[in-house]
Write a structure and sequence with these properties.
This protein is of the alpha+beta class. A hairpin with a 2-residue loop joins strand 3 and strand 4. The termini are far apart. The chain is rod-shaped. It contains 2 helices and 6 strands, in the order αββββαββ. The longest helix is centred in the N-terminal third of the chain and has 33 residues. Strands 1, 2, 5 and 6 form a 4-stranded antiparallel β-sheet that branches. It has a two-stranded antiparallel ribbon with strand order 3-4.
Length: 162
């Protein structure tokens, strides 16, 4: 009688184990199929994506007194009246009106400096100034227009002066 009881309990224990394993297996498959999850195969990157032909830059306000992006130095500031400045895409434009006294005073040398920082996660390399353009110079009195750049390689967060 004792042997029959042991055989019967083993069968019951085996059936309980099989049912329990099947239940756990069913739960795990159901959870995997019905839960929201994301699987990433490969490499994920957090570097920003930049569209267009130019990378973004942040202009630095150099003239904090007048809240302007440029600093002006030279022989005489009084002969040029500031009108406005604009920044569109990768082009900075400053607008001046030539004062009347400029004609009588002869040559005047002016230097304009602007600065920007690199807000991207990429290095700016091979920097160069590509175009200088003067508009509405009716008397053709502007001479020797040139430009320079402080560094040709700007790391992320670094500043460059033009």
């Amino acid at each position: 009688m004792k042997e029959e009881w042991i055989k019967r309990n083993r069968k019951i224990l085996l059936i309980i184990n099989i049912v329990l394993v099947a239940y756990i297996f069913t739960l795990s498959i159901g959870y995997a199929l019905l839960s929201d999850s994301l699987t990433v195969n490969g490499v994920a990157t957090t570097v920003g994506v930049y569209e267009g032909a130019t990378l973004p830059i942040d202009l630095v306000v150099l003239d904090t007194k007048n809240n302007r992006y440029y600093l002006q130095t030279g022989d005489s500031k009084k002969h040029l009246d500031f009108k406005r400045e604009t920044w569109q895409g990768d082009s900075y434009t400053v607008y001046y009106r030539k004062a009347f006294g400029m004609v009588a005073s002869g040559k005047v040398t002016q230097t304009f400096t602007i600065a920007f920082t690199n807000p991207t996660a990429l290095d700016f390399t091979n920097g160069k100034i590509t175009t200088w353009e003067v508009q509405d110079d009716i008397s053709s009195s502007l001479e020797n227009l040139s430009g320079s750049i402080s560094t040709t390689n700007v790391k992320p967060g670094e500043r460059c002066e033009v």
